Amino acid sequence: EVVLIHDEGNIGKAIDECMQTALKMASEDPNVFVPQQFENIANPMAAILSASMLLEMAFNMKEEANLIKLAVNKALENNIRTIDIAQDKAYTTQEVGDYIQNVILNS
Q1: Is residue 33's pLDDT more than 60?
Q2: What mean pLDDT is predicted for residues 27-56?
Q3: How far is it, in rounded angstroms, from Cα 80 to Cα 58?
Q4: Residue 80 CA: distances (Å) to CA of 64, 85, 86, 106
Q5: What is the distance between the alpha carbons of residues 92 and 95, in angstroms, rounded to a whole number?
Q6: Which one of 12, 42, 45, 82 counts the least CB within 10 Å of its CB?
Q7: pLDDT band at residue 8 using 50, 70 and 90 as cut-offs
């Protein structure tokens, strides 16, 4: 079965809806495989930093790229980290991404 999810302009909501749909399908059918990315534990920082590199190198948007780098560094400094690099409390992929997004938007 293929289930299409439309993001309606909000990628965070689309990811959450995909996650919830996959987990619901898996709970109803033991033959449904849910990939790790739907467990909400993947570290988004490298992907976010790659966007910074794209802005800086391809579009010469150094100020915007720097905002992203500073936001990721702030997350690390405040221990807003996923389970793979957490020192104390581990945050979900969504929580880390939301934190970094909020830092950027409020800069």
Answers
A1: yes
A2: 84
A3: 29
A4: 21, 10, 8, 17
A5: 5
A6: 12
A7: confident
Burial class (CB in 10 A: 0-12, 13-18, 19+), 6: exposed
What is the four-CA torsion angle of 75, 70, 94, 83, rounded to 10 degrees?
Answer: -40
What does the block give as tokens for 5? Answer: 């999810």
Q: What is the pTM of this model?
A: 0.68
Whose tokens are 């992929």? That residue is: 93
Rounded-to-integer distance, Cα 107 and Cα 99, Å? 12
In this structure, what token pair is assigned to residue 2? 């293929």
Residue of 82, 76, 79 whose CA lies nearest to 36: 82
Q: Cα–Cα distances in Å, from 95 out to 42, 45, 91? A: 11, 12, 6
Structure tokens at 65: 């790229």
Question: Which of 53, 10, 3 lies closest to 29, judged by CA?
Answer: 3
Which amino acid does the sequence have at 19? M
